[in-house]
Amino acid sequence: MSNPVFVALDTPDLEQAITIAKSVRGHVGGLKLGLEFFCAHGHHGVHEIQKLDLPIFLDLKLHDIPNTVAKAMQAINMLEPAVVTVHASGGRAMMEDAKAAANEHTKVVGVTLLTSLDQNDMGKIGYQGTPHDQVERLADLAREAGLDGIVCSGNEVGAAHKIWKDGFFVVPGLRPKGGAMGDQKRAVTPQQARNNGASLLVIGRPITGAEDPNAAARAIEATL
Ligand SMILES: O=C(O)c1cc(=O)[nH]c(=O)n1[C@@H]1O[C@H](COP(=O)(O)O)[C@@H](O)[C@H]1O
User: Fold this and answer.
1) Which of 61, 63, 87, 115 most suits a substitution to test ligand 1, by most atoms within 8 Å of the C-beta?
2) Which of the four pLDDT bands, split at 50, 70 and 90, describes residue 2?
3) Which residues form the Orotidine 5'-phosphate decarboxylase domain (predicted)?
């Protein structure tokens, strides 16, 4: 992947998503569509964004019983996404069935610990140990289940890379130096994440919320 940045088009407004995508084309490697966009526009919206001719990352974070997740995966196969997310905490059988149901050329990656959570939040939802422990535990499980990789923060991607040499590592929660954190709690810079071994960088608001998204995307590209 030449440019590892996928811009997160987190908006329910189709025209706005197209405008932003057009403005950053040439300075990102792909487009990420998530729950906000997909709930508003479904398959039709994905087809409209595909007209821009960039790889599509469909971030649906599937998390349910294995049968339901496999059927949901089958229902998006015709969209031929480059990457799809499931929650690794859905368990090994769920991940196995998700991967088995996906298109051959779709990378299925497991979200380990959301980048909006820190150690304090982990305790409250009953997770033991540190974010590193959780990411490594679920990276092992995702690999055993046959997934292509995981989603984790730039803090843990180096350690995850060591235990899964040929894994595909998606890193969101990225902020250029001094950028507003918003709801992200385990953020690093795009450059740090890349240096730590990220394969794909997900960047939303630092680009889409900028006064000039094209300039923001170019500035990030220049640091990589
Ligand atoms: O799977 C993801 O992409 C994801 C996982 C995660 O742990 N944290 C996370 O922020 N994301 C997504 O990455 C994007 C981050 O957006 P910004 O914080 O605006 O850059 C959003 O679309 C999130 O849904």
Assistant:
1) 115
2) confident
3) 4-220
Whether residue 216 has its Cβ less than 6 Å from ligand 1: no
Per-residue pLDDT for 92 more than 60?
Answer: yes
Identify whether 165 is a catalytic site residue. no
Give the whole-angstrom CA distance, residue 129 versus residue 2.
36
Say what the pLDDT of residue 78 is: 97
Is the CB of 156 within 6 Å of ligand 1?
A: no
The verdict on domain 5-223 having CATH code 3.20.20.70 is: yes
Identify the three-state secondary structure at position 97.
Answer: helix
| Among protein residues, the one whose CA lies closest to atom 23 of ligand 1 | 172
**C-alpha 202 to ligand 1 mean position (Å):** 7
Q: Is the pTM of this model over 0.95?
A: yes
Left if phi > 0, otherwise alpha if psi is -120 to 50, otherwise beta: which for 91?
Answer: left
Residues 174 and 207 sit within 8 Å (Cβ to Cβ):
no
Q: Where are the beta strands (DSSP E) in the chain?
A: 5-8, 30-33, 56-62, 83-87, 107-111, 149-151, 168-171, 200-203
Residue type, 128: Q
What pLDDT digit, counting tens, does each position of 181-222 carry?
999 999 999 999 999 999 999 999 999 999 999 999 999 999
Nearest of 111, 114, 112, 115 to residue 187 by alpha carbon: 115
ipTM above 0.85, yes or no: yes
